[in-house]
Amino acid sequence: MGEGVIVGLQTEAAKIRVPHTAHVSTVRPLGLIAGSGRLWKTSSMTFQEIINQLAAGVDALPEVFSTLTADLAQAQKDRDVALADNLSALGRIAALEASGVVTDAFLARARLVVGMDKPGPDNTGVITGISRTNWNDPKTSGAVALPPGIYENKEFFGDLFPADPTGKYLLRNCKGHGGIGHPSNNRGSFFTYGLTSGWMTFEDCTITADDPSWYRDGIVGHRYTVRRCNVYGTNDGIGGNKPDGGIIEQNWIHDQVWWRNDPAHTDGSHNDPIQLQGGGPWIVRGNTLQAYVTADPRSVGTANPYPVSGKPGKFYGGSAIMLSEAIPSLRATISDNWLEGGYAQINVNNNRGASGAINVALGDNWFGRDVRNNSKSGTDKRWICLAPTGGTITMDGLFTRQRWDDNKTLLTAGNTTGIRTV
């Protein structure tokens, strides 16, 4: 597939800090402070400006006191707003506790630790025992615009996208069912392509496609956080194909749906629990990613040739994590994930050739032994598959932090020992 450069750095993986944003009221300082040669401002005048005003004479005193009085009034107003915000939040929590909505399951989810608590059916997706209501008509078939806001305990139908590219969206304990029929091009049960400065967050949600399609992923786009979700029954689980990155953590992604007659692939659909196609930074951590698929009964053509022994009705899928460059400069941190099945478990293909550069910081990840053999004449198993294709792949932690899940020993380079370059 062509020569290239693979850099496997032997150092600690660089940490990418992702700012956590929350709504807080800003309270301006009541005092005027000078120190270390630096003058601190109130809303309108610096300490030095006040001194200059006072030095100008008594006539300046009214303006100075007017400024200080206005600043004090504004600070008091800001304090009152902040206090009201806090009381409102406390009151809401108290009301939820009184109504029994805050359950042990919510508390258990909050205590889950990335890299220690393995995601699965009991700790991802919608929470058992909390009822949900339909946000829209279950017969919805096409794309649906979702206004900004907070959505809790809702059922969504159709393929939803953010109505406002600058808006903020939070979906908590919701289920997405997807649309009906095959879309004309790739999208998802939720697709966030259009976000510019907005952000969409999914927490404790179940994302599926009641009517699967080769063009319907679970969640695809960018500028999203997906946390503790159960994603299944889709083409890819979670996709990233826009420049601004996202956060994918503590999810269980499994059982994608395979089609022989996928119009995008002559050998059948390529189903990946996670596929990132450029941009960043992407944070992928603490997920269980199982690259096994089921075949849609409407699939036309020859059967899937890669059945999984001991798992009736299941076949090997694509890659647990697929990294490529449909758009330039993929940047990702991948850590604390459990990976199983597939053609490979981390597959890195620099498909831009000499102009491409994929940069990945690998933390600790744990690899299952079950992966498809890629050779008819011998053994060629690719838990980590690197295809530089004339470009550069940089993977910090490649040889120092990737371990077998069963005995915690390191993967090494070789056809049967974990790391393959093709």
Describe the structure.
The strands form 5 sheets. Strands 4, 7, 10, 13, 16, 19, 20, 23, 24, 27, 30 and 33 form a 12-stranded mixed beta sheet that branches. A 10-stranded parallel beta sheet has the order 1-32-29-26-22-18-15-12-9-6, with no helix packed on it. The chain is of the alpha/beta class. The chain has a domain at 133-421. Mean pLDDT is 84; it is low at 9-44. Strand 2 (34-35) and strand 3 (38-39) form a beta hairpin. Helix content is 13%, strand content 32%. The chain is built from 3 helices and 35 strands. The radius of gyration is 26 Å and the shape is globular.
Summarize the structure.
The chain has about 425 residues and is an alpha/beta fold. The protein is about 15% helix and about 30% strand. It has a domain at about 135-420.
Distance between the termini: 7 Å
Structural class: alpha/beta
User: How many strands, which pairing sense, and closed or not: the largest β-sheet?
Assistant: 12 strands, mixed
Instruction: Please report the total strand number as a whole number.
Output: 35
| Share in helix | 10-25%
> Taking all residues together, what is the mean pLDDT?
84
Low-pLDDT stretches: 9-44
Number of helices: 3
Keyword list:
alpha/beta, 422 residues
What's the topology here?
Elements: E1 5-7, E2 34-35, E3 38-39, H1 47-55, H2 61-99, H3 104-110, E4 133-134, E5 143-146, E6 149-152, E7 154-156, E8 159-162, E9 168-172, E10 175-176, E11 187-191, E12 199-203, E13 206-207, E14 216-221, E15 224-227, E16 230-231, E17 238-240, E18 246-249, E19 252-253, E20 256-258, E21 274-276, E22 282-285, E23 288-295, E24 315-316, E25 319-323, E26 330-335, E27 338-341, E28 344-349, E29 357-362, E30 365-367, E31 382-387, E32 392-396, E33 402-404, E34 412-413, E35 418-421
